[in-house]
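Suppose a colleague, Dr. K., hands you the sequence of a protein chain of 140 amino acids and asks what its three-dimensional shape might be. Before reaching for any lab equipment, you can write down a predicted structure in token form. Begin with the sequence itself:
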Amino acid sequence: MFGPDKPSFIDQVIGRAREQDAVAAVADKFSSPTYAIDVADWLRLAWEKQAYGILHLANNGGCSWREWAQYALVTCRSAGIPLKTDRVKVLTLADMKTFVAKRPVHTVLSTARFATLTGVQPRHWRDAVAAYIRRYVAKK
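The predicted structure, expressed as tokens, is then:
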């Protein structure tokens, strides 16, 4: 989850790329990057449409954490945000010796039930990341 009110993974990656010559992210863990602003809209919609039960509220698609970080840096560059690096190096979970929490490596969520019950297909995570960077990161 990422958004304007609390620093997240994407903010950390961009911050490091602004300050350091090297940035790395895990390439063998996959998830659904999700924009908090979109979740707020989907919650309202689910309530209005009375879409009850277990719903995965996530942006569409999935990616590795490295892919997410790399896309963020590419988007920053295209928005004219100065960075010291534009490449995200590959890390593996095995490289993360201090990563104590045991979590599944594949947590990409399906939004099919939400889409069926509300008639709304969540936007792709790339579109959400680009919107976040243009609206919040570019102004910092």
